[in-house]
Amino acid sequence: DTRQGGYYYNSIIFALSVLPVDVDFISFDDLPEIDLTVYDAVISMGVTGSSFHGDKCWGDFAVVEKIREYVYNGGGYLGVGEPSGYYKNGRYFQLSDVLGLEKECNFTNFERRERVQIEKAHWITEDLDMTDIRFNEKISGVYSLNAKLLAAHFEPEYPLGAQNACNADFAVNEYGKGRSVYFSGISNNNNSFRLIYKAILWLGKKENEYKKILAEDPNVDVFYYEKSGVYAAYNSAEQEITTAIYDKSGYKSIITLKPKGIKWISE
User: In sequence order, which residues have a C-beta less than 8 Å from that of residue 22 and are 6 or more positions away?
Assistant: First the structure.
C-alpha cells in the first residue's frame, strides 16, 4: 500500500484542521530557539525516510534535549509512526525515555522481556467507539519500556503475546511532570478525530475542558461564534442523529439533526 507513508499521518493534519485547537508549524532549525512552554503539546509524525519525519534532525542533541526538557517540566508530546526515529547512541527512538517506548532494530531480538499488558481503560478512550479506529499495522517492532499500552498487534507465530512479538499501536506515558502519547498511525474518520482531540487534551492536562462546545456523537460538529453568541451544530452523517451537546460552560442539551443537517442555537 503506497499510501501508508501518508494516510495514517495525514489524518492528524485533517483532525487539527477541524478540532478547536490553535496550531503552529515549527521547523527543526527553529526548534532550539522556540519557547515551547506556550504550547499544550508538541506533535511529530511520519516514518523514517518520509519528508515530514525529520530523519537526521533527530540526531541533533539540541532538538532532542529541547523536547525532553519541555515534557519533563510539564509539557505534552504526541508521537506518530516512528517519532524521533534515528539510530544513534545505542537507541532508535531518541525520545524513548519520553515515549516509554523503543523500536526493535534487530539488535536486541533475543533479550528477554516481560509479557505485554494491554490496559483496559484510560481517560482518553472513555466514551469512544474504538471499533471504528484503525492503527497502522505496518509499523512493527515498537515495544514498551515503561509506557502503558492501550492497543497493540502481535506477530501470528506468538499467540501468547510475548513482548518480543509486540507491535505497539497506542500507548501513553508519564515523564517527569509531563505526558506523552504514541500512535503507530491512525485512520481518518470522525471517531479517530475525537480520539486525537482527547489525546491532546490529556497531554495538556485539560481534561475538564472536554465537554465544552462539543457533541457526544463524533459525527456532529459544534461551532461557537463568540461575537454573535450563536452555536452551529452540523451532522456530517448520512442518517438522522439525536445527541447531547455542550455549550461553552458545559451545559448539556439534546438536539436532533437531519442527515447533513445544521442547526443554529442562540445563547
Answer: none
What's the CA gap between 65 and 74, in Å, rounded? 14
What is the CA angle 135-111-160, rounded to 5?
A: 50
Q: What digits encode the pLDDT tens for the residues 94-146? A: 999 999 999 988 766 656 556 678 888 899 999 898 998 999 988 888 999 99
Average pLDDT of the residues in 30-41? 95
Q: Which residues contact 19 (CB under 8 A, 6 or more apart)?
A: 193, 196, 197, 200
> How far apart, in whole angstroms, are the C-alpha atoms of residue 230 and residue 161?
51
Distance, in Å, from the CA atom of 61 to the CA atom of 27, rounded to the nearest integer, reads: 15
In this structure, which long-range contacts are made by residues 21-28, counting pairs with CB atoms below 8 Å and at least 24 apart in sequence? 21/197, 21/200, 28/54, 28/57, 28/60, 28/63
What residues does 244 pair with on adjacent strands? Answer: 254
Q: Which three cell numbers stand for residue 44?
A: 511529530
Beta bridge partners, 200, equal: none
User: For the chain, how far is it from start to end, CA to CA, in angstroms?
Assistant: 48
What pTM does this model have? 0.91
Residue 242 cell numbers, joined: 439525536
Task: Give residue 70's pLDDT band: very low, low, confident or very high (50, 70, 90).
Answer: very high
Those residues with Cβ within 8 angstroms of residue 25's Cβ, 6 or more apart along the chain or in another chain? none
Contact 213, 246 (CB under 8 A): yes
- Which distant-in-sequence residues (6+ apart) come within 8 Å of 185 by Cβ? 4, 7, 8, 9, 11, 80, 81, 135, 136, 138, 139
